[in-house]
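Exercise 7. Given the components listed, write out the predicted structure of the assembled complex. Treat all entries as one system.
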Amino acid sequence: MSLDDDIAAWAATVRLTDADADAIFQRIVATPVRSATATPSLAPSWWRSFNAGFAARMVASTSPARRAA
Amino acid sequence: MDRQAEFRRLYEAHRRAVHAYFTGRTGDPDLSADLMQDVFLRVWQHLDKVTDMPDDGQRAWIFTVARNLSIDTGRHQRTQAGTEQALARERAGTAASSAPASVAVIDAERVAIVSDAISRLPEEQRVALTMAAAGSMTSVEIGAAVGVPAGTVRYRLSLARRTLAEALDRYDGHAEES
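Answer.
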């Protein structure tokens, strides 16, 4: 055998068989495709409402301490 | 063309090359089949994007995914075990094959020598040789896939072939002595 024959014979031992390749194909196509769902955007007024709520809570939570002082 | 048919076309066009690439990297055809499945699962998930690309772009995208796929520790350990098992299977196959005894045994022994020598090659040579032999790829195609010039691939192939030839020469020398 020539070197090329030896390498070809080795390659045949590591190559994926068509049956195995087809089994992999079937497993993949049975996998549901993740739908590219768009992330819902925030309402334009969200940040203003958040800030207002946050400020109100800060004031409410610190006012007892201010009164105590 | 429907989605599955389009995926089939891509899969058949590139699966041998991807499997050969991983076999070159890991030395384990079974592990390589798992990794190949991971790559094509990503192709399946991003099929619309991939099909919009030209052929060269598709191959580049697929091999970028393949190169970036992490081969974790567990898989690496399986690789080592797989390589041993693959060699053992080859030797068992040698012993089991009856028939024109001596010729078949010598041929199988030569394949085992080649297999052993390939497993000891530096990874870059092993990948190039495996992609050429098992993936039936040209130097240009291998270079595009692994991101090196075709001339570099040819040089790696030449070094790998020289190593294999030396290993077989040693085997032939021993065979003649005995």
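Discussion: Helices of chain A lie at 3-14, 18-29, 46-68. Chain A has a mean pLDDT of 83.
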